[in-house]
Amino acid sequence: MIPFFAQIRRDLAIAWQHRQDLAVMLVFFVIIIALFPLAIGPRQAVLTELGVPIIWIAALLAILAGFDRLFAQDVRDGWLDQVSLSQLGLGWYALAKAVSHWLTAGLPLLVMTPIMAALLDIPMAQLPVLITALLVGSLALTLLGVIGAALAEGARHAGALLALLVLPLAVPILIFGALASNHDSGIVSPHLMLLGAVLAVLLAIAPLVAASALGTGETETGL
Amino acid sequence: MFDYLANPSRFMRLANRVLPALVLLAVTTGAIGLYQGLVTSPPDYQQGDTVRIIYIHVPAAWLALFGYVGLGICGIFYIVWRHPLADVAARAIAPVGAVFALLTLITGSLWGKPMWGAWWVWDARLTSMLILFFFYLGYIALANGFDRPERGSRPAALLALVGLINVPIVKFSVDWWNTLHQPASLLRSGGPAVDPTMLTPLVLMLIAAHAYFAIIVIYRMRALLGERRLTALLLRPRGEA
Question: Is B103 among the domain residues?
């Protein structure tokens, strides 16, 4: 267990050194959200209806923005090889990456959500539902991004490839998340439960898939 | 059996023996199916003659899903048993399945305009087929996205496994969401709900499409294996012809 938390601490320390990246990501989130009303026009009724989906799409894009470089530095400087030989193992390493990425991306987005909701005129009563759904959804998206980053590690044009890989898989999360956020009788809804199911499945398979994919880079044959 | 077929030469010998039979099957069932479908089968009482596109649209949709399941199975064979031909088969299947998915979308669109009044609607089944098409594209991009070609085999196999979740969603999406698309009428409890005059050409076209799919995949595998052999020969050091 200790290596797992040590890995998280390492990633957080590195992220702290580049803490301006967090600001960049948050500004990215805000700008995407701001673009929609600018394009749609000041029609309040339309904006209110679109508010929740806009936040979801912005969150999706902002969370996935940094994933193409998730493993790149560690592969380049040999840390990945050390991890694969160590007690930690690639699976737990991938999970630790997911946790640290969520803490540096997903969690700040959740904190920003009430402000964004105010910008988009989403009723305050809807905030608990929205934030709960975004919590589950952001965790799921982070795990999905880890899978995508591990698969695309070492590829040419990793950024665009990552988007092509992850966005289709993210569609159920987006659909269920938006439906769960709009649920009007209580926080828990069937959609939230389905979202939780997706999270559970991703939690189970992400470490395995990432470990299998990351292990490829070391052996030259690719098998 | 799969161990027996792991040798590429053995597999290609078997495939080449099977190929003429497949061609015969595809041509006969396709010809009869098309004739029955386009000429002798009755026009639908509501839709008229435009229903005839079903004889292309439904086989294309089945094969698109079938191709993706095939990719998933190849992925399993590659990851679990490291079967040497699994990767070749998957790379052979992927573009064929992608084209069938595109064909489904296009024929569906052509059908939808006179039927529903719109080229495209965002109902569950159409959206799932579109997502499936994107999956295929992502698979092809990943498998070919590395500087060393063989490096892409494992990530692509893993992607196929992960994406396999999508296929049940497509099949049962019609039941889960209230949609415009016709509910399942072939593989449902109680047997098919389609009349024999339309069912026969449909089944014939399905068989023809499966045979056609197999033929194209065998040709592609032949080409891919030949390419690998050529690369191996070219990379051999000089003096060792």
Answer: yes
8 Å CB contact of A169 and B163: yes
Q: Confirm whether the ipTM is greater than 0.95.
A: no
Least Cα separation, residue B223 to chain A (angstroms): 21
Say what the pLDDT of residue B41 is: 77
B187: pLDDT strictly greater than 70: no
> Of A15, A99, A129, A111, whose CA–CA distance to A59 is shortest?
A111
Comparing CB atoms, the residue among A156, A168, A171 nearest residue B145 is A156
Range of the domain at B46: 4-176+197-235
Q: Is residue B240 part of a domain?
A: no
Q: Is residue B182 part of a domain?
A: no
Closest by Cβ to B79, choosing from A156, A205, A212? A212
Q: In this structure, what token pair is assigned to residue B96?
A: 């064929």
- Quickly tell me which residue has 């910008």 as its tokens: A119
Q: Which residues of chain A have pLDDT under 50?
A: 219-223
Q: What is the 3-state secondary structure (H, E, C) of chain B?
A: CCCHHHCHHHHHHHHHHHHHHHHHHHHHHHHHHHHHHHHHCCCECCCEHHHHHHHHHHHHHHHHHHHHHHHHHHHHHHHHHCCHHHHHHHHHHHHHHHHHHHHHHHHHHHHHHHHHCCCCCCCHHHHHHHHHHHHHHHHHHHHCCCCCHHHHHHHHHHHHHHHCCHHHHHHHHHHHCCCCCCCCCCCCCCCCCCCHHHHHHHHHHHHHHHHHHHHHHHHHHHHHHHHHHHHHHHHCCCCCC
Question: Quick one: pLDDT at residue B174?
Answer: 38
- Based on the structure, what is the number of domains in chain B? 1
**Binding-site residues on chain B for chain A (CB distance < 8 A):** 79, 82, 127, 131, 134-135, 137-138, 141-142, 145-148, 150-155, 158-159, 161-163, 165-166, 169
- Put simply, the answer to whether A164 touches B141 (Cβ < 8 Å) is yes
Rounded Cα distance, A112 and A119, in Å: 11
- Does the pTM of the predicted model rise above 0.90? no
State the count of interchain CB pairs (< 8 A) between A and B.
69
What is the C-alpha to C-alpha distance for residues B105 and B185, in angstroms, rounded to an integer? 19
Q: Which domain holds residue A155?
A: 2-217
Count of domains forming chain A:
1
pLDDT tens digit string along B26-46? 999 989 888 888 888 777 777
- Residue B128 domain-assigned (yes or no): yes
